[in-house]
Amino acid sequence: MRAIACWPMLLSALLMFPVAATAQDRSVLRLVAPYPAGGNIDVVARIIAQPLSAELGRPVIVDNRAGGSGMIGSAFVARAAPDGGTLLLNTSIQVVLPHLMKLPYDTLNDFTPLAAVNSLPYWLVVAKDSPFRSVDEVVAYAKANPGKLNFASNSTGGGSHLAGEQFKKIAGVDITHIPYKGAPAAIADLMGGQVQIMFEQGPAVGGFVKNGQLRALATTSRQRSAMHPDVPTFAEAGYPAFVYSNWQGIWGPPKMSAEVSERLEHALTKVLQSPAVRQRLLELNTEPLDLTGDKFRNFVLEQYEVNREIVKSANVKLE
């Protein structure tokens, strides 16, 4: 942590010596994690950093620049030199926030998409003593009792909220959103019966499902999780259009040359496809993704539109 804390002073010194700064940028790759140390993004960044360093033959450090729902770190990368020395690891909030607020950067034009890292699908979960044992039972109750079924989320405008809004639209049901400040409070009220259902990611609820405090009815992934093969998909439950996840990806600054971006894409592909990295990502209850270059760029554009439509159709407003 001391090395991370000294970066502001080091950067100030480098700005005073342009020649030295250029040399430093070439020797060290800074992987910006725009959230605090110890969180999911930070953990994934550290899983990637060491093998990426070995692949590129240069040191890779994780630089935690937390704040503003990822905006501080993202803005830092958007302004960085496009020399391959600074990258951003962020979640799909990168393509959600533009539809909720004015940002200090242009999500689609101020970054160079390089690779998707993993996907964190949402599980529809209920308390252990809930009467609901299938998606069909939830939908049947919601249709028979419009507005009476509550679904919890960890925040307004967050992935668990948007997943619930997408479910409402696809299933054709009227259920009431109850936002919380963070997943722990929402999960506690779900287990206590104050709310009836919740859409949340595996890392947050997997342990409660495993010990029997919660029951998982379905997952929003395209296929069953390798780590939790007993949780069916919404496609299996009769809702194939309901595919939604929080995902993580790596971007560079804008205007990166083809040579620089292709070198990074090649290195990231090898790292993310390595058995050791894939296993560690699976152990985090996430699903590795194989999207680099044009495939990831097209995926970013698609996800930008998916989230724009959800926010617009549900009239989601930040409180």
Task: Describe the structure in your own words.
The chain is of the alpha/beta class and 319 residues long. The protein folds into 2 domains: 2-119 and 246-314, D-Maltodextrin-Binding Protein, domain 2, CATH 3.40.190.150; 120-219, D-Maltodextrin-Binding Protein, domain 2, CATH 3.40.190. It is 43% helix and 20% strand. It has 12 helices and 10 strands. Strands 1, 2, 3, 4, 5, 6, 7, 8, 9 and 10 form a 10-stranded mixed β-sheet that branches. The chain starts with a helix and ends in a 5-residue tail after the last helix.
* The CATH top-level class label of the largest domain: Alpha Beta
Query: Quick one: how many beta strands?
Result: 10
What is the SS-derived class?
Answer: alpha/beta
Low-confidence stretches: 1-25
Give the total of domains.
Answer: 2
- Helical content band: 40-55%
Report, as a whole number of angstroms, the end-to-end distance: 34 Å
CATH topology group of the largest domain? D-Maltodextrin-Binding Protein, domain 2
The biggest sheet, with number of strands, parallel, antiparallel or mixed sense and barrel status, is: 10 strands, mixed
The overall pLDDT, averaged over residues, is: 90
Shape: globular
CATH H-level superfamily title of the largest domain: Bordetella uptake gene, domain 1
Radius of gyration: 21 Å
Topology order in helix (H) and strand (E) letters: HHHEHEHEEHEHEHEHEEHHEH
